[in-house]
Amino acid sequence: MKILYIEDEASLAKIVKESLQSRSYDVLHLADGENLISNFTNFSPDICLFDVMLPVIDGFTLARELRALYPSIPIIFITAKVQTLDVLDGFGAGGNDYIKKPFSLEELIVRINNLYKLSNLTMGSEINEKMIQIGQFTFWPDRLELIYEGVVKRLSFREGQLLGILSENKNEVINRKHILDTLWGDDNFFNSRNLDVYITKLRQYFKQDQKVEILTLKAVGYRLIER
Asked: pTM, whole model, 2 decimals?
């Protein structure tokens, strides 16, 4: 697996890079993202790790720039910023996952492997080979696009995964733990909060069609319904 790692804290970057390389990952480390696109193109990574507080250009801005050209590349943010608004900003910028400092290398590796596996499974699965109609919306999982009256909304990778699960089981109750285990491989508090953020974002997208709604069944899960 090829990992593009952007971190300006030299001592941390050295530890993380060497630890990943010792486990046979191919790592390109950059201290800033000034030449992100050219480095990305030359290296062709499978996954990106971005620190948020970077010199020159912050990690959120880098993610937005990269997402505009490569909408499906998995991105993990590494940061000490863990307030709800920070998490929302990160996901809004196109991040798929979020790990807070200080972190264990074991947790980072688990998150990398899980996201990499999910990205390959999702992009190659049957759900991404067809169009799904949701009320007046058209959902193209392979393109990560949600279309309403000709207007295209580009979804993040994680939004596409979540909507794929909900849309493939329309009008059925999907257990919350099942979603967490499928998307993150863990139902811990932090991932649970991430799920809440994504559900809120999807609800905002569907507000244009009153016949489409994502219902919350307290302590159970969610159901995407079409009236």
From this structure: 0.55
